């Protein structure tokens, strides 16, 4: 009887809140609708061995950005390029309160990159924090949801409290690369226990030039972290 009631309740919920494609928002019974499944491509090899951005050939170990930039993280990976449907999906996730997308994103991140997390010997997952002002305006931090979801799927502790943004920076998308670096100088501070010898995974929604990840990684290494890696939903094309 309980099972029958449960199934009936699930059917009612499906009618009231049908599943929609996380990329286009159309109602679908599939995880991703057929048109989006054909158009949204996961990033594959060859990748930059540092930031994970696509490179043109196997002989190119690093992308242009990473050849000319000193990074404080060891390596990172992203699911998709930040374009078309992916850009729209993340916009809805962040600015239209589509928090439900976080489950889809974290499942994809865990499925695609779980083996790397094991190889990297990650012992702590940390989201890139928002300033208090921006978090209050948005109502949530999208990176917190990603970190908590990955924590549950991978069985690794997430700390959404102790990496703090010390200044309310100007949105990075409004700045050039040099300005972005200056904007994020000393923007993060680790307030928890020393991270001595630990390998840490940073999580965020988008990797553009890497300045945000770098600034956070630098603060974590100052706090004793041995190595810092990152995972993001999408990655830009560089500068």
From TrEMBL:
InterPro entries to which the protein is assigned, alphabetical: ComF/GntX_DNA_util-trans, DZR_2, PRTase-like, PRTase_dom
Range of residues in the leader sequence: none
Boundaries of every Double zinc ribbon domain copy: 12-67
Residue ranges of every copy of the Phosphoribosyltransferase domain listed in the record: 192-231
Domain of life per record: Bacteria
PANTHER family linked: DNA UTILIZATION PROTEIN YHGH
Similarity-based family: Belongs to the ComF/GntX family.
Protein name stated in the entry: ComF family protein
Source organism: Claveliimonas bilis
Source organism phylogeny: Bacteria, Bacillati, Bacillota, Clostridia, Lachnospirales
